[in-house]
């Protein structure tokens, strides 16, 4: 069994290159499963085998809810990334946050702009025992560096291509 270690605060050191500098790439494949519809009956598997989940429509959208869905996965990603960035900033500032909790809600709904679909993310942070002004500064700074909140606020470069 390997020991789990926290991330190094050196991840907070600024990068000064001219181009995007990749640090890690996750690759996940989704197939359509039984109904040939990735969202309704798909299987999501990472290329390293660490992620292997059944995708199902939630009951609110007409599915049986017998599996996870993209909104739950995205909410988990948002909460985990924000918590990680918050922990790094708190460690660097020497502010203990042993009971920190981040809760992300991701809502799938209709987009009034195009009439189709959009997501709304709501991220709530609980920092028990941390003075309010310090907690607010930590959260504000975390929001500036967390790639998920940056993506949600400003968009993300998205390259879509058809493979042969």
DSSP strand content = 15-25%
SSE class: alpha+beta
**N-end to C-end Cα span:** 41 Å
CATH A-level architecture of the largest domain: 2-Layer Sandwich
> Helical residue percent?
25-40%
Say how many strands there are: 5
CATH class of the largest domain: Alpha Beta
Account of the protein in words:
The mean pLDDT is 94. The protein folds into 2 domains: 25-68, N-terminal domain of TfIIb (Single Sheet), CATH 2.20.25; 69-156, GMP Synthetase, Chain A, domain 3. It is α+β, with helices and mostly antiparallel strands and 164 residues long. The chain contains 4 helices and 5 strands. Helices cover 30% and strands 19% of the residues. The radius of gyration is 18 Å and the shape is globular.
Primary descriptors:
N-terminal domain of TfIIb; 3-stranded antiparallel beta sheet; 4 helices
In short:
With 164 residues, the chain is an alpha+beta fold.
Task: Give a topology summary.
Blueprint: E1 28-31, H1 38-41, E2 43-46, E3 52-54, H2 70-92, E4 101-110, E5 117-126, H3 132-145, H4 147-154
Antiparallel strand pairs: 1-2, 2-3, 4-5
Helix pairs in contact: 2-3
């Amino acid at each position: 069994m390997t020991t789990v270690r926290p991330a190094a605060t050196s991840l907070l050191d600024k990068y000064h290159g001219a181009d995007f500098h990749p640090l890690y790439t996750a690759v996940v494949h989704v197939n359509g499963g039984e109904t040939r519809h990735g969202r309704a009956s798909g299987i999501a598997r990472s290329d390293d085998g660490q992620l292997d989940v059944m995708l199902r429509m939630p009951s609110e959208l007409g599915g049986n809810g017998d599996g996870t869905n993209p909104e739950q996965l995205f909410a988990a990603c948002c909460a985990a990334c924000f918590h990680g960035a918050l922990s790094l900033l708190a460690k660097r500032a020497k502010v203990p946050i042993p009971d920190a909790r981040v809760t992300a809600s991701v809502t799938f709904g209709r987009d009034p702009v195009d009439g189709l679909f959009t997501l709304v993310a709501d991220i709530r942070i609980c920092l028990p025992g941390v003075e309010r002004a310090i907690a607010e500064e930590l959260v504000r700074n975390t929001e500036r560096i967390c790639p998920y909140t940056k993506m949600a606020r400003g968009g993300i470069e998205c390259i879509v291509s058809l493979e042969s």
